Amino acid sequence: MANNDTYQPEPEDISLARSLNRLIESGEPVSSDQVSLFNALETYKSTIQLRHEAKADSDLWDSIENQIETDTKQSGTTATLFTIRSPYLKIAAAFLVALLISLLYLSLPDSEPEFLATSGANQTRVVLDDGSVVTLRPHSRLKTEESTDAQVTYRIDGEAYFDVTSDASRTFSVVAEEGRVDVLGTRFTVSTWSSDVRVFLEEGRVRFSDSGTGESVTLDPGEYSVLEPGGPATPISGNPETFTGWINNVINLDERTLSDIAEELSHHYDVELVIPDTAASESLSGSIQLDDLNQVLDDLELTLGGEFERISENRYRFRANP
């Protein structure tokens, strides 16, 4: 996180401000194409890294306004940033200002967790301040919940592999829904894409607890646990490739049920695979290369003896051969 006293706007900030200024100054009716400028703010909101600073961010808008004024002088015209010519544009401009200020440099020290990274269709590698490395599975998000000299806590939505730097003076924790993992130095995975939170320990030692009940278990290397309604299940040994294979773009089936495999693939590709009850409990072995989704579905069809039919956008249903 940056600690600069004065915020220097990113190129994206300037670009948005310029686009809005040109739209407003034109005085033309707002078309559907122009409305897309404001719709794009939601995309912008989901892709930027959120930051929280103690200092108010008036410097941000001062900097952007100065930039726009420079553009105006160079073009030989006279204009005022955000001169509003219609009620619609007043609302749109107010929305832009409120949204970007709240997203970029919000002076609320106790506000929502800070987004560190969001992965799209590919893995994302994040190096934390202490040197720990987090590998995010596709379509996953990592946030900072707490950061002090004695404690740092992150929240994961989706799945991630953590390689934590050892620091006996500072507890490293990961929150996943109602589950919590506390470590000192280790390698482990945490996933939330299934119906249960799962933790697999590759190296070191972790304590996996239920935030609601307070029940906890301690995992040794090679063990995993699942968060059940009453607390974490007793740790049992697991195949490391089953839990970390996705890092190498592979799913290890390892006698897993089709419903469990479908849940993992649904998260990995950001789709929904609908499995009928008659096939949900079928066990599969081997491995699947996580390349193109269509190729993955083709491989499953050959193994299962059936086909995945597309029933809507990003939604597929398996139908067994008669």
TrEMBL record:
The chain crosses the membrane at residues 88-108. One of its GO terms (molecular function) is sigma factor antagonist activity. Keywords: Membrane, Transmembrane, Transmembrane helix. Residues 117-207 form the FecR protein domain. InterPro entries: FecR, FecR_C, Ferrdict_sens_TM. Residues 251-315 form the Protein FecR C-terminal domain. It comes from the Bacteria. PANTHER family: PERIPLASMIC SIGNAL SENSOR AND SIGMA FACTOR ACTIVATOR FECR-RELATED, PROTEIN FECR. This is FecR family protein.
